[in-house]
Amino acid sequence: MKQPEEMHVAVLAGGPGSEREVSLASAEGVVGALEGKVARVTLVDVRGSDFQLPEGTDIGFNVIHGTFGEDGALQREMEKRGVLYTGARALSSEVAFDKVTSKKRFLAEDVSTPASEVVLLDAGNVGPGSVGIPCVVKPPREGSSVGVHLVENEEEWEAAIADAGKYSNDVLVEQLIRGKELTVGIVGDEVLPVIHIKPRSGFYDISNKYPWMTGEGGTDYICPADLPEDVTREVQAQALKAHQSLGIEVYSRVDVLLCEDTNQPFVLEVNTIPGMTESSLLPKAAAAAGMNYATLCLKIIKLSFNFG
User: Fold this and answer.
1) Which residue in 240, 261, 114, 120 sits closest to 188, CA to CA?
2) Residue 74: in which H helix or E strand, if any?
3) What is the pTM of this model?
4) Are 41 and 17 in contact (CB under 8 A)?
5) How far is 132 from 152, CA to CA, in rounded Å?
6) Given 15, 19, 71, 251, which residue is catalytic?
7) pLDDT in tens, 67-101
8) Annotated catalytic residue, options 20, 89, 141, 253
9) Among 54, 86, 109, 136, which is most buried by a count of CB atoms within 10 Å?
10) Which of 194, 169, 171 lies closest to 253, judged by CA?
11) Per-residue pLDDT tens for 217-260?
C-alpha cells in the first residue's frame, strides 16, 4: 500500500441527484484538506457512470451524497474499473440508502427504531395505516431530508404524500418521536462524540441543514451533546449497533431521535456518505474527539485500503 504522500486522490463529487450542490461543497473541503498531504488531488465532477478518472488515480474519495454516490451505483462502477474508493462497499451502501431495507435490518438486530409502515401510492386512496397521525412521511431513497414532512393532521398528510410521491411510488410512514435530534459519527471502530442538532425553527430539513444554499433557516450544534452519561452511552451503543447491522465498512453518521419523555434513543437512518464540508457534522464530531479535518480525511483513505 502506498503512503498518503505518494497517492493521487480523485475526489468524486456532484452526482446527478438532488444533493449535487451539497456534494460539490463537500468536495471543495476535502480537496483543500488533502492538498499538501497527498502527492496529487484532483476534483472530478461526476454526472453519471461515464465520468473520467485522471490517469494514475490510486483512490477515489467519494463525496457524492444521495443518488448514484450513496446507493451503490458509483461503488459498482469503481469496482468494474478496478479502482479503489473510500467508504462503504456497494452492497452495504445500497442497503443503507434504502430506508425500508435498513429498517428491516434494524428490527432484525434489535436496534431501537420508530414504528413504521410502507404506503404504496398506486394503491389508490392511501392513509397512514397503523402508524396513524401524527407521523413522519419520507421517500425511502433520498437524503438531506428531501421530501420529508412532519404530519400533524389530515390536511398536512395529503400535502406530504403528494410531495414524497414525486420521488417514488412507495413512501415510508414513521411514528413521530418528539425529542432531541442527535447524530453520531463512526470512523473505523471509533464512536465519536454525540452531536445535538437544534434547528432554530421547525425540524432539521434542508433549509435548516444548508442555509447557505436555501437562503433561509439555520441550526445550532452542541458537541458533545449535553446529555447524562448513561444516555450518551446508550445513544452511542444504538448508533454502533445500527452501523454494524447494515454491514457498513469504513465510516458513517447515524441519525438518532432521543424521546423527550423516556430518553430512549430511536435510530432513524445511517448515512454512508455524510456531509464533508469543514463545518459538517462528521468533521465537527471528529474535532471534538481531537481529530482535525485533514486527519479525518486521511484516516478515511487509510481505512478504505483495508477493503480494496
Assistant:
1) 240
2) helix 73-81
3) 0.92
4) no
5) 10
6) 19
7) 999 999 999 999 999 999 999 999 999 999 999 99
8) 253
9) 86
10) 194
11) 678 999 999 999 999 999 999 999 999 999 999 999 999 999 99
Distances (CA, A) of 246 to 96, 156, 192, 242, 263: 6, 32, 18, 7, 24
- Is residue 144 among the annotated active site residues? yes
125 noted as active-site residue: no
Taking the CA atoms of the chain, what radius of gyration do you get in angstroms? 19
Active-site choice (93, 116, 255, 304): 255
Catalytic position from the list 26, 92, 252, 271: 271
Question: Catalytic: 19?
Answer: yes
Q: What is the dihedral of CA 70, 113, 304, 187, to 10 degrees?
A: 130
How far is 111 from 306, CA to CA, in rounded Å?
Answer: 27
Domains of the chain and any CATH numbers: 4-87 (3.40.50.20), 96-112+178-307 (3.30.470.20), 116-175 (3.30.1490.20)
CA 16 to CA 164: how far, in whole Å?
A: 19
Q: Of 14, 147, 165, 275, which residue is the catalytic one? A: 275
40 strand-pairing partners: 8
pLDDT exceeding 70 applies to what percent of the chain? 93
For the question of residue 275 being annotated catalytic, the response is: yes
Report d(CA 124, CA 132) in Å as an integer: 18
Cell representation of residue 270: 445511517
φ/ψ of residue 142, rounded to 5: -135, 160
Catalytic residue check, 82: no
In the three-class reduction of DSSP (H, G, I as helix; E, B as strand; rest coil), residue 233 is classed as helix
φ, ψ dihedrals at 32, nearest 5°:
-60, -40
Residue 232 in contact with residue 224, Cβ under 8 Å?
yes
Does residue 210 have an active-site annotation? yes
Cell numbers that stand for 144 in this block: 438531506
110: left (phi over 0), alpha (psi -120 to 50) or beta: left
